[in-house]
Every structure is written in C-alpha cells, then in structure tokens.
Amino acid sequence: MSLTVVLWLILQVYCGVCLVHSENAAGEKSFYIANDRFYKDGSPFRILGGDIHYFRVHPQYWEDRLLRAKSLGINVIQTYVPWNLHQPQPDRFNFEDGANLEGYLQLAQKLGFLVMLRIGPYICAEWDFGGFPAWLLAVQPKLRLRTSDPQYLELVDSWWDVLLPKIVSYLYSQQGPIIMVQIENEYGSFGSDKSYLEHLVTKARAHLGEDVILYTTDGAVPELLENGTLKGNAVYTAVDFPVEWEPASAFALQKQFNCPGQSPPLSSEFYTGWLTHWGEEMAHTDPEFTAEALDRILSLNASVVLYMLHGGTNFGFTSGANTGKSARDFFADLTSYDYDAPIREAGDLNTPKFKALKAVVGRYIQESLPDPPPLPARKAFGPVQLEKLLSLFDILRSVSMVPEGIQMYEPRFMEALHQTSGFILYRTTLPSHAKGGSRIVIPEVHDRAQLYISDPEFGGREQASKKYMHIGTLNRSSDELLLPSSAAVPGLQLDILVENMGRVNYGPFLYDPKGIISSVLLDGKPVHNWVAFSIPLDSGPPKIAGLVSNQNTRRPLVKDTGNWTDGPAFYHGKLIIDEPADTFLSVAGWSKGLAFLNGYNLGRYWPVKGPQCTLYIPAPLLHAGENELLLLELEEPSNTLIVNFTDGADFSCKGTM
Ligand SMILES: *[C@@H]1O[C@H](CO)[C@@H](O)[C@H](O)[C@H]1NC(C)=O
Ligand SMILES: *[C@@H]1O[C@H](CO)[C@@H](O)[C@H](O)[C@H]1NC(C)=O
Ligand SMILES: *[C@@H]1O[C@H](CO)[C@@H](O)[C@H](O)[C@H]1NC(C)=O
Ligand SMILES: *[C@@H]1O[C@H](CO)[C@@H](O)[C@H](O)[C@H]1NC(C)=O
Ligand SMILES: *[C@@H]1O[C@H](CO)[C@@H](O)[C@H](O)[C@H]1NC(C)=O
Questions:
Q1: Which residue from 440, 563, 564 has its CB within 8 A of the most atoms of ligand 4, so it is best to mutate?
Q2: Nearest residue (CA) to ligand 3, atom 7
Q3: Residue, of 644 and 232, whose pLDDT is higher
C-alpha cells in the first residue's frame, strides 16, 4: 500500500464522509465547503450573518427588520426554530402568524438573504426551557433530555417528522435560501452523549439529504469541542467565543475539529451585546470595542454571524431563565431581548454600535449598502388612567375563568396538570396544629409563591375587599416563613399563588417543572388535601370585562392586625388613538405583573426589580379607536393607577427591593 492510501484510510476512519461535499462542487445552486472556504455556486463566499429570530419580532415587522439587516451588509440570516412554539401540545402544531416559519424563509429569500437554520431540538436562546415544550416535563418516567434516552428520541423524531419535510424545499440545492442546518446547540457545554448527536444527524440527513451542510456550534475550548462536535460524521464544526478572545487561535482550534480543507473559519455567535436578567443592570457593551473585535475576525477572511443582530422581544411567557451553582440561584430573563444589539428592540439604527459595525463592514465589501427603511412611526400617547376590575381570587370564586379546582392530596406540579404557563393557586385549610410562629416551608417552589390567609366562611358569602392577609412571598432561594399569630387560626384558608417566571434554558438544571414540586411543610409535617386552580393565561386575558368588584369593605372575622389586601388584581383602561404607532408602556410605579393589550400578552413587568420599566408595543398590536389595556398586578398598584405610553425604552428602573 502506498503512503497516500494509508493516509487516505486514516482519513476515512477519522473523517470518513468528510469529502462528500466536495463532490457536488461545480453545480449551479450549490453551497459547499472546500479549501477551508465556503463556496456558493462555485465562487468563494464569506458569511456576514446575523441572528434575527422570527419568534421575537411581530410578523408584520419581519420585513422591516430584515431590510435593516440589509443596510448593514448582512447576507445570511441565522435563526433558531423553537419546538415549543410549533408544538405547544403533543397533539397540536402551530405554523401560523408569528410561527409561520415558511413565511419567514420566503421573505428572507425574497429580500436576497441566505439562511442558517438552527433546528435544535434544544436551542437555549434565552427562550423558555431552551425551546423544549413544557409537556415533556409531564412524561413518565422522567425524560433524560438531550441524551439518547429512547423515549426522548422518539418525541424528537416525531417532531422532526413534522418540521423537516416543511423545510426541504427551502434548501439551497432546491432553489431555497437555507445553506446550513445546525444540530443541537453548544452541546459540548452540556453532555458527551455522541450517540444522541449521531441520532440527530442521521434523522436530519434522512429528511434533508446528504448534500446539505449540517453544523454544530460550541465554545472555542478543547473540552467543549471534544464533546459537542461530530467531524467523523461529516458535520461541520463552527465555534463561538467572547469578543475579547483572539479569533486566530479560536479558528486554529476550530480547524482541529474539522476535517482537512473543511474548516472555513466561522464565528457563528459573535456577541454584539448580552442578555439581561431581572435585577441586573441593562447589558451594555462598548461599540468601538465590539467593532474592533469584528474587524479582527473579518481581517482573517473569516465568516461571522452577529448574535444578536436584532434581539426583539420575549412577548408573553416566552422568556427563559438561568441558574447559578444551584437550581435555587434563579435568574429570570427580561421581557425585552434588546440585547444591546446594533438594531435595537424597536428597530432603531441610529446608535453608536450600528454605526461602528457598519464602518467595519464597509471596509470589507465592495457593493454600496442600501438605505434602511424609515423607522416605523412612534408616538408617546401619554398617560392612561386605569381602574381596578376584580381581584384574581374573587374571579376564582365567581366566574369560570379557570377550570374547577383539582383536588389533590399533595401539591402537584404545573405540567402534571397539563398547564404550560402562568400561575397555579394552591388552596388548603390550615391544619389544627397551626399556631403563631409556626414555620411554613416549601422546599421546592418554582418560582415564586405569594401566601395568603383568609376566612373561607366569610369569603364564601360576601364579596368584600381586603379579606386576604398577605403573610409573605417565598421563592426558590428563600423557602420559609413564620405564621403570624393573627393568622394562625386552624380552619382558615391558606392560599399559595405560585408564578412560573420562565423555564431554565441553559445548564445542568434545565429540567425545570413549575409550581410546587415538594410537600408544603407546617412545623415539619406535610400539609395534605389541596385544591389547585390552573391560571395559564395563555390564550389572552380572562374575559372579565363587564364584571365589577363589590366595594364592601367589611373584614373577615380574624384579628384585624396584619397586611390585609384583596390580593393580585386586574386593572383595566382604554387607550384611544387616531392612528396606530409604535409605543412603549411605562409601568413605573407599578410592582410586578403582566400586561395585555387587545388580548395580546405583552409580557411580564417588574419595575421594582428593574432594570426594564417599559414594555415595547409594536404598532400592529394597536388599532385606531379604543384599545383595551389590562394589567394583572401581583403586588402593589401605582398610587395613581396611571400607566404612561411613552416613545422610548427605559432600562433605568433601579428597583426599590
Ligand atoms: C466531556 O466528556 C467527557 C467524557 O464523557 C467527560 O468526562 C467530560 O466531563 C465532558 N466535558 C464537559 C465539558 O462536559
Ligand atoms: C484574505 O484573502 C485575501 C484575498 O484572497 C488574501 O490576499 C489574504 O492573504 C487573505 N488573508 C488571510 C489572513 O488569509
Ligand atoms: C427571593 O426572596 C428573597 C427574600 O425575600 C429575596 O432577597 C430575593 O431577591 C428573592 N429572589 C428573587 C429572584 O426574587
Ligand atoms: C406587613 O408588610 C410589611 C411589608 O411587607 C412587613 O414589614 C410587615 O411585617 C407586615 N406586617 C405583618 C403584621 O405581617
Ligand atoms: C409620561 O411620559 C412622558 C414622556 O414620554 C413624560 O413627559 C410625562 O411626564 C409622563 N407622564 C406621567 C403621568 O408619568
């Protein structure tokens, strides 16, 4: 055997199928890798990409945001595909409106972009549960997510059997925009189950064919790349790394995890900014520093994808969360996914970062860049007076906004009740051993529990306000309180309202069911016999218009000391306008809750925690005339009950807690 053959055999073992892509090199409509470069239709091609996630932008603004990308010289749009958006229930699929993936692909192509599609099934993305549907958490025995657990793979397969046939005709080889398809996401940061990754590759190739470039993205660190990449399966390895890092060494490392000639340098997540959690300062990265980092990458003739090019908004209940060293250190993501990206949440380009990045890009491309479209009209519609409609607890008593309570011996978690989002109210009766100073502990509550005592006899007969005594708020890291003596009357009702603040989307504590996951202990003894009310609020706000709360202020027959309240409540107001325009809802002065506009869930607000104190409202959510605003305020409303529609985002809420 000649030396060449021996080398060839060794190559076959280590990168057996590596050479496949070169074979279709010459064709029309071909996108392939050779000589450590990307080639499009036979000519070298540099990816100047950016992430814009269709699921974070109102569909009527997709075109606007993509045109803004054009004006920065972007030629490839990268996006994830969130499984939970498209298969919200095991038997329900959604590809309509904001979930119209094919519409987004068609639009991208019409505007002259190529697409890098990141199909997961896990996507991270600061998105609820990293894109996994919540119903996976109800499967018994517990799924081992992101492994080759056969039951998990079966569910992934049946999802991909729906998704992948939809995207085949959008592959570049089929005259579509998709040049590359990413498998999983930064898998090397999580596990080392190569047969799981291999299963995904086999499944993807079965649907998409052998020609399409499959890729992985992992941090540019040897251990991460060892566990997350699949060069032996002809899967191209891309890397991501902090902007501070020296790109030449990252690309040299990338090369070790690609077959010879198959390693076009690609930073597939170039961080233009960063994510922000509630309670942190809003992310801000220096424009010049970011631009210099981009320049270093482009000067190496490398390809790059800006993450994020335009972040958008985590509307509704879609934002994710992170954990620290323990699952108890819990940090929920903001509703805004502005990310300090060059194209801001509401489309603004007039920023130092956009200008600095554009100046760099301009040095590397020949063609002149098109002007961006004018910014959509924006207006400060001003203050709107809200009025209180009803307390959440009164609604549970009086209208069928939620199904009947579910009886249970021990509290059950949210997904076991077939519920995805929102709240669960767990209700029980204080047991006979309750006394002043009794210790209530909820060892595992995801994520935040507001506890109230009330007199059921009284409450059942009368619609009086302020009949609930708030005895404390617990969360994942602060799980116990002492029962005040005024509330320690056996037979009184104990209500625990538990909020799902967004599922963990990254790291070892990804398996994150919501609600109460443990027993509730009173002086060390489990409390039994609960009724749970599901309050998912996922199909818009409850239909409560027209109901008025009774203003009777009689108090229940327990001692009068303590913090009396009528608990979380809905507040309602009308924004009357001549013409829709982009605007921001300022909730400064309010505490914590949710806002619905014309039935659309704008997302969570929490100005007392900060830093976000406005919610972005794209014009397509408004109409001329009367627009209905509904807040569910969980704690204290503003003194004046006023909200303010302003013309700019405000991330300066410092918080008072
Ligand atoms: C990579 O996989 C090895 C072998 O399974 C494991 O010991 C190691 O901890 C993994 N590394 C990371 C970063 O997960
Ligand atoms: C980049 O490409 C140009 C043109 O092909 C070439 O002259 C230059 O040497 C390349 N630079 C690097 C760092 O590869
Ligand atoms: C949990 O509760 C403790 C005590 O009230 C508080 O200090 C902490 O900030 C809370 N954590 C979150 C995430 O709200
Ligand atoms: C009432 O609430 C305040 C503020 O949360 C707290 O400091 C006080 O201890 C509470 N009073 C009682 C009697 O629970
Ligand atoms: C509403 O916001 C505007 C700025 O857009 C500000 O000038 C005005 O004082 C605010 N009004 C109230 C009532 O907060």
A1: 563
A2: 478
A3: 644
